[in-house]
Backbone:
DNA sequence: TTTCTTTCTAACAATCGTTGCAGTTTGAGG
DNA sequence: CCTCAAACTGCAACGATTGTTAGAAAGAAA
């Protein structure tokens, strides 16, 4: 098990990338880039929307989804489904794993390689494995405390 | 890494369990029990519905959801969200992991304990981990073949 | 700068999986 | 049988996400 560090792309870099792809640079997109860069969390489309709307109240949720999907298909951000109802976008591209609170939905990154999580060929049955995701599920300290209080 | 075997509960056992809980034994429920028992797959509510409907055309999708949720909250089946659009119910309760085809959504059980997948306390930050899920993502043999054919 | 083409955005409607609700039906104990 | 709480059905509603389209705006060319 090895420990590593996160890494994200800046708004300027993303802007340049869009330009190279022949995509237009709009204030909406730049705003979204900024929010993603300032956010090491795992925001939902809705939460990016809420943040962007503070500086650009007219933006539509549709545009946020569109831009996040574009970024995801360009491979610039990741997309997670952790069973919390809505998809989460992950500005952190490093291969990493997740610690999820089943009570409040909070998500924490785990930077660690579990080198021995490999399947023997016999179990693969011809599958080509492209990625291995590990999700640790449980309760965050806040929710644990709240639960303890309720039981008393 | 250790290898183990699956296990499921029979319709009779589930019936008995419901009786003990004071829940009624209805033909709908028994039908659903049977389908789950014959199914080592990871059916969606919709697919259980389709199967049950063959012998009981009048059953409603609502009832299927209801019963599956009941079973899940009694801890008799598991519930998975593997990002394939809809929730999957897992009649297999043994702790196990999953191999998912990102193209067609097929899910295969992996019976193996990865004993060394543990988080050091320093990374836990007070979290209580209740379960560890490992998802291997990739392409199943069928979809690989189809993709190869398309590229040629 | 003006014009033109192309792409984007906003608004709205539609879809999908799932759940809430209201009225009707039914299993199980008396 | 009867009764009655519990379960069933059908449908409406809901949250997340996507399709559509008219109008606006960006970038290129003149």
Residues:
């Amino acid at each position: 098990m090895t420990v590593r560090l996160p890494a994200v792309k800046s708004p300027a870099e993303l802007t340049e990338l869009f330009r190279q792809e022949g995509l237009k640079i709009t204030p909406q997109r730049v705003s979204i880039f900024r929010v993603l860069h300032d956010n090491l969390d795992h925001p939902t489309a809705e939460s990016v929307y809420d943040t962007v709307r503070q500086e650009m109240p007219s933006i539509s949720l549709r545009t946020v989804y569109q831009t996040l999907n574009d970024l995801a298909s360009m491979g610039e951000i990741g997309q997670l489904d952790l069973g919390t109802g809505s998809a989460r976008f992950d500005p952190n591209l490093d291969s990493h794993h997740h610690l999820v609170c089943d009570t409040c939905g909070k998500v924490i990154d785990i930077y660690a390689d579990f080198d021995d999580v490999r399947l023997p060929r016999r179990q693969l049955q011809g599958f080509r494995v492209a990625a291995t995701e590990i999700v640790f599920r449980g309760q965050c300290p806040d929710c644990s405390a709240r639960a303890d209080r309720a039981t008393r």
Residues 22-24, 26, 28-29, 58-60, 62-63, 66 of chain A lie near DNA strand C (CB under 10 Å from a C1'). The interface with chain B takes residues 1, 80-83, 99, 101-102, 108, 110, 112, 114, 116-117, 119, 123-141, 144 of chain A (CB under 8 Å). Strands of chain A lie at 78-80, 88-90, 97-101, 107-110, 128-139. Helices of chain A lie at 11-20, 27-37, 45-55, 61-73, 121-124, 141-151.
